[in-house]
């Protein structure tokens, strides 16, 4: 899953792909480099990020979706707003990737309404764990048992969707590296990543260029390609089925080597 942020303030690539033409050119590069899913976001969710209005988010993402809807790879919308979910699905995206795990008002209904209106094309859904919200999530996050608590949350959110009629095979889960977790929490989750697969859903690993890698290496955001790839391989080796990254070419090439030795 390649990250395409049409934002001015995302932590790693904010401002690089604000115009539709720049974003489309980046998407074409990712496709050439072997991406499977392009995750389009119009609002930064880095720690401390301020929310943007619905209209501003739509103005950022809809032209990109329209330009890429026939690009040959799956499109995902990175949003938590119900109206953005509705309009992105109408515009042709294949997946909803929600940091709030569809907890915002109207989000679940947006999925169900789309299913009702377009039963022939039911989207995939990625449910992520986050403690508190982007403005406060990194203020001394605390857990008794981070693995158990994150697993329980994701299981409950997934089961709620299934009870609403969403098929299990449409749901993936994301433990949410860096979203209300300390360095210790993040390392614990990566070391025990295989435990999340025990819930029976494909698991997404989103570690690319994150601050945990900067704390370990002392590298600035744009110098974290090597540790990001290393983390991706570690996650894949522990059962990750989706790897969300900024650096598609480097990650794809590294995964090819890893896959070759898996037999």
TrEMBL record:
MF term (GO), any: dihydropteroate synthase activity
Any one biological process term the GO annotation gives: folic acid biosynthetic process
UniProt entry tagged with the keyword 4Fe-4S: no
Catalytic activity: (7,8-dihydropterin-6-yl)methyl diphosphate + 4-aminobenzoate = 7,8-dihydropteroate + diphosphate
Top-level division of the source organism's lineage: Bacteria
Pathway where this protein functions: Cofactor biosynthesis; tetrahydrofolate biosynthesis; 7,8-dihydrofolate from 2-amino-4-hydroxy-6-hydroxymethyl-7,8-dihydropteridine diphosphate and 4-aminobenzoate: step 1/2
Domain spans labelled Pterin-binding: 1-256
GO cellular component: cytosol
Protein EC: 2.5.1.15
Keywords: Folate biosynthesis, Magnesium, Metal-binding, Transferase
Keyword Nucleus found: no
Leading EC class: transferase
Pfam family, one: Pterin_bind
The protein's required cofactors: Mg(2+)
Record's protein name: dihydropteroate synthase
Organism in which the protein naturally occurs: Polynucleobacter aenigmaticus
């Amino acid at each position: 899953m390649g990250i395409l942020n049409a934002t001015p303030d995302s932590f790693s690539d904010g401002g690089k792909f604000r115009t539709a033409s720049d974003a489309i050119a980046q998407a074409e590069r990712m496709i050439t480099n072997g991406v499977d899913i392009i995750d389009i976001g119009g609002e930064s969710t880095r720690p401390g990020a301020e929310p943007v209005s619905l209209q501003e988010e739509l103005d950022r993402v809809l032209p990109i979706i329209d330009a890429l809807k026939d690009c040959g790879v799956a499109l995902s919308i990175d949003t938590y707003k119900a109206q953005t979910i509705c309009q992105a699905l109408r515009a042709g995206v294949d997946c909803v990737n929600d940091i709030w795990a569809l907890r915002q008002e109207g989000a679940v209904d947006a999925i169900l309404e789309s299913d009702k209106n377009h039963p022939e094309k039911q989207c995939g859904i990625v449910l992520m764990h986050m403690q508190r919200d982007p403005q406060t999530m990194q203020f001394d996050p605390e857990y008794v048992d981070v693995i158990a608590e994150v697993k329980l949350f994701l299981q409950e959110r997934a089961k709620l969707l299934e009870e609403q009629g969403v098929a299990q095979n449409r749901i993936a889960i994301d433990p949410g590296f860096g979203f209300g977790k300390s360095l210790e929490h993040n390392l614990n989750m990566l070391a025990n990543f295989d435990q999340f697969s025990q819930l029976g859903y494909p698991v997404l690993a989103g570690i690319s260029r994150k601050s945990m890698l900067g704390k370990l290496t002392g590298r600035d955001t744009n110098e974290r390609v090597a540790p990001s790839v290393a983390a991706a391989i570690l996650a894949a080796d522990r059962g990750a089925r989706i790897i969300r990254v900024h650096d598609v070419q480097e990650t794809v090439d590294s995964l090819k080597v890893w896959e070759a030795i898996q037999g």
